[in-house]
């Protein structure tokens, strides 16, 4: 098990900036309001029978002023670059050259957004008999936009963030679906806690409104079809509804934050992750239990925010784990935001920090009784992220002080 | 050997196992023999038709069997083979039980054309839309493709096969990925999280679309005939890089742990550094400051000064811009000293192994330290008069080498450097 936790002598790591652009809206106010009102934004027609949580439209100009930059990106990168800008604004470091020139970036990314017209064009021409040896080559040479490659490359989300917002520190991109988001937070936390880094931008973005992604997940029958239901109410009708979202965090050593007078939303105390073999029923539950035991002691008023997907058997395995901790109120980001893959874990940390800073957990939205009301202010929130196929992560977000 | 801690008080990180595969062959012995002999692994592509392509050669790995074939499958198989080699040399842990985490540099994963075409054929009619493809994708017939084309699939396979600990990290920093995988391992050991780390980098993506993508960005050499002469780092008539496949694996350990178990130490990762260039998606900042900063950070991380570097394993892609920028920035860092530092580019022979390059070249650098012999930069017949490196042209050179700087620069403003030494400073 790999884990990072503040050890004696290591610095506390604060969350001093949050940027959210999701299917519920842009910014902290809009997202919090929608959560409080249990508003969900799903589209069951545009991709029918598949259900997606579409991005609430934003004006990209506000964070990506150059149209030329916007044109160089596909949607997933625009969403992420936008949300990253919001996080920098939230931390009060937007345009601060001294800080941005040294900030360390760890981004969780997918990629590969395709030009569906090109793909369909090639395949239908082949179906009609185009079979010359160089047919595919010639079509790709003439039909692919030269810049599309850069809009597909995983590390070009980080690249675009650096260009648009002027980040000049370091840049690492982690891939690997859901757990990539946990690992990004884990490594950034470890680097700050050990003094290797003072401040980091961490997060991810996802465009769920993509038929090429629906194809990929349909291969494994993972897509939610026909009818929306909260994550916990999908047992007989399993699957995830892809969601569009960008979620970025500014993580900072306490000393660095205090020196510039920055206020924390919360502190990130620990991030742990593992890879359950998932060969036998109970494997994943056992791994989540192990991760739970690795987190620092929880003595405060706790809650759990999970990125449970609604896909099986992972969601049932996770339910098994949650049953052992039924005194913790649970909230599912999958119900409210859909499944945003690499972004789900950073989104969970963001909502944990926001809930702690606002002194309340957002209300449950569930018909099965898995999510219960919470009275009073949470001081410790465990973020859970178990992948639909592989990878498990957990974080502890705590009130400062 | 000396102290288990470096000048900054951190655990010294050493290499105790290495495995490598390139278009030259499998394993360290074969690769090294061919490398110092100046052999090229670049050949005309036979894996798929090249009609209609401007670039028809690459450094493919054609001697590894993968069924059913996919670029990701090839990346995975190569990664497995080089890890086997590295673990056999290191003699660490037990079979299927590596005592540390995995950091894997891997090309971004996506559904590939053979699978897409299979889906297209399965629709069973000449006119269809993308929705028709989507409609027939489910039902379990293609579930293996879901598993194959997860970004984390290669790392998960390696982690399960070799029993690495914790959550394996799959990373991409474009052409710097291999160096980043090593850097992540070094940092984990320095922080004291682990005594050992497995750093693997692999790239098997010579496929039609990947070739077209780089072609459309005018990044590839078009000197197809003869293919062996296509990759011309630092030459006046260089015209782009040559795509290539390969993999490298390194077992990293703390000096203390390695010596405690009596392991043979192959070299030291003395320093790592990275610095982002926010100038442009594919071009370096014209003033070269991010690359200069990257090299300086790496020297500082190693606690070394430029006069202590006696060889540079260059990024040396053979694109017109890279090689010029690399010379300008390197000379800014090393000044007058540069005249006395032999420089070489392994890419002249093995091509650009993209996601694997940083690890492949780190391994070649460590072999250079071991053999005290610098592999040549082949095809160096017409030196670029504006690039005043002491290029090890065409023939290997015996030299006293104690510290090598290995550089990697990638799309998206990714710069990473490593300093490798024979013994702890």
Automatic annotation (TrEMBL), chain A:
One of its GO terms (biological process) is fatty acid biosynthetic process. Keywords: Acyltransferase, Transferase. Residues 12-256 form the Beta-ketoacyl synthase-like N-terminal domain. Signal peptide: none annotated. The keyword Acyltransferase applies. InterPro entries: Beta-ketoacyl_synthase, Ketoacyl_synth_N, Thiolase-like. Pfam families: ketoacyl-synt. Its EC number is 2.3.1.41. One of its GO terms (molecular function) is 3-oxoacyl-[acyl-carrier-protein] synthase activity. PANTHER family: 3-OXOACYL-[ACYL-CARRIER-PROTEIN] SYNTHASE, MITOCHONDRIAL, POLYKETIDE SYNTHASE-RELATED. NCBIfam families: PRK06519.1. This is 3-oxoacyl-ACP synthase. It comes from Bradyrhizobium nitroreducens.
TrEMBL record, chain B:
Residues 10-422 form the Ketosynthase family 3 (KS3) domain. SUPFAM superfamilies: Thiolase-like. One of its GO terms (cellular component) is cytosol. One of its GO terms (biological process) is fatty acid biosynthetic process. Its EC number is 2.3.1.41. Belongs to the thiolase-like superfamily. Beta-ketoacyl-ACP synthases family. This is 3-oxoacyl-ACP synthase. The lineage of its organism: Bacteria, Pseudomonadati, Pseudomonadota, Alphaproteobacteria, Hyphomicrobiales.
């Amino acid at each position: 098990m790999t884990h990072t936790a503040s050890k004696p002598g290591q610095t506390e790591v604060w969350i001093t900036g949050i940027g959210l652009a999701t299917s519920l809206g842009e910014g902290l106010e809009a997202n919090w309001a929608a959560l409080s009102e249990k508003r969900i934004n799903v589209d069951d027609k545009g991709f029918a029978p598949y259900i997606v949580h579409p991005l609430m439209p934003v004006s990209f100009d506000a964070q990506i002023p150059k149209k030329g930059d916007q044109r160089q990106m596909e949607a997933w990168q625009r969403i992420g670059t936008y949300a990253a800008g919001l996080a920098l604004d939230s931390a009060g470091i937007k345009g601060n050259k001294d800080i941005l020139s040294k900030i360390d970036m760890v981004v969780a990314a997918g990629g590969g957004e395709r030009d569906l017209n090109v793909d369909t064009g090639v395949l239908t021409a082949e179906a009609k008999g185009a079979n010359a040896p160089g047919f595919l080559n010639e079509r790709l040479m003439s039909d692919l936009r030269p810049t599309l490659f850069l809009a597909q490359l995983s590390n070009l989300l980080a690249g675009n963030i650096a260009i648009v917002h002027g980040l000049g520190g370091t840049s690492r991109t982690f891939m690997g679906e859901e757990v990539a988001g946990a690992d990004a937070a884990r490594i950034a936390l470890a680097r700050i806690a050990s003094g290797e880094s003072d401040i980091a931008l961490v997060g991810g973005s996802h465009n769920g409104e993509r038929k090429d992604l629906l194809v990929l997940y349909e291969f494994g029958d993972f897509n939610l079809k026909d009818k929306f239901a909260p994550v916990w109410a999908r047992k007989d009708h399993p699957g995830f509804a892809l969601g569009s979202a960008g979620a970025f965090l500014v993580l900072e050593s306490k000393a660095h934050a205090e020196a510039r007078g920055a206020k924390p939303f919360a502190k990130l105390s620990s991030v742990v992750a593992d890879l359950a073999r998932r060969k036998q029923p109970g494997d994943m539950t056992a791994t989540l239990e192990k991760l739970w035991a690795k987190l620092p002691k929880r003595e405060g008023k706790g809650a759990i925010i999970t990125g449970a997907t609604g896909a099986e058997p992972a969601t049932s395995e996770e339910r098994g784990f949650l049953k052992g901790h039924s005194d913790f109120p649970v909230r599912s980001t999958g119900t409210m935001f859909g499944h945003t893959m690499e972004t789900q874990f950073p989104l969970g940390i963001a909502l944990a920090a926001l809930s702690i800073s606002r002194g309340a957990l957002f209300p449950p939205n569930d018909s099965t009784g898995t999510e219960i009301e919470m009275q009073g202010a949470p001081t410790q929130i465990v973020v859970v992220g178990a992948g639909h196929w592989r990878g498990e992560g957990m974080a502890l977000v705590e009130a400062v002080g | 050997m000396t102290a288990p801690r470096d000048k900054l008080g951190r655990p010294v990180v050493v290499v105790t196992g290495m495995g490598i595969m390139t278009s030259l062959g499998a394993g360290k012995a074969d690769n090294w023999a061919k490398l110092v002999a100046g052999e090229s692994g670049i050949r005309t592509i036979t894996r798929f038709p090249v009609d209609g392509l401007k670039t028809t050669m690459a450094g493919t790995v054609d001697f590894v069997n993968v069924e059913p074939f996919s670029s990701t499958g090839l990346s995975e198989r190569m990664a497995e083979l080089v890890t086997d080699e590295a673990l056999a040399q290191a003699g660490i842990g037990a079979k299927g039980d590596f005592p540390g985490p995995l950091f894997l540099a891997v090309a971004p994963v996506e559904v590939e054309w053979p699978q897409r075409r299979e889906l297209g054929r399965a629709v069973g009619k000449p006119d269809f839309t993308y929705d028709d493809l989507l409609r027939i994708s489910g039902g379990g017939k293609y579930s293996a493709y879901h598993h194959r084309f997860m970004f984390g699939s290669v790392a998960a396979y390696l982690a399960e096969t070799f029993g690495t600990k914790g959550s394996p990290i799959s990373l991409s920093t474009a052409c710097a990925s291999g160096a980043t995988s090593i850097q992540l391992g070094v940092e984990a050991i320095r922080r004291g999280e682990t005594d050992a780390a497995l750093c693997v980098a692999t790239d098997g993506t010579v496929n039609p679309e990947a070739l077209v993508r780089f072609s459309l960005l005018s990044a590839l050499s078009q000197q197809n005939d003869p293919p062996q002469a296509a990759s011309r780092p630092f030459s006046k008539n260089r015209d782009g890089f040559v795509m290539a496949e390969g993999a490298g694996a390194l077992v990293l350990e703390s000096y203390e742990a390695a010596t405690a178990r009596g392991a043979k130490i192959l070299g030291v990762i003395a320093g790592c550094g990275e610095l982002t260039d926010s100038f442009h998606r594919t071009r370096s900042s014209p003033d070269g400051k991010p690359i200069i900063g990257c090299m300086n950070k790496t020297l500082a991380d190693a606690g070394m000064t430029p006069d202590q570097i006696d060889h540079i394993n260059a990024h040396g892609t053979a694109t017109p811009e890279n090689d010029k920028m690399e010379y300008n920035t390197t000379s800014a860092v090393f000044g007058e000293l540069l005249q006395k530092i032999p420089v070489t580019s392994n890419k002249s022979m093995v091509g650009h192994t993209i996601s694997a390059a940083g690890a492949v070249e780190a391994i070649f650098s460590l072999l250079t330290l071991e053999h005290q012999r610098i592999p040549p930069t082949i095809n160096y017949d017409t030196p670029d008069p504006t690039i005043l490196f002491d290029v090890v042209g065409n023939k290997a050179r015996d030299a006293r080498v104690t510290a090598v700087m290995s550089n990697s620069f990638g799309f998206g403003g990714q710069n990473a450097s490593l300093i490798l030494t024979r013994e702890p400073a």
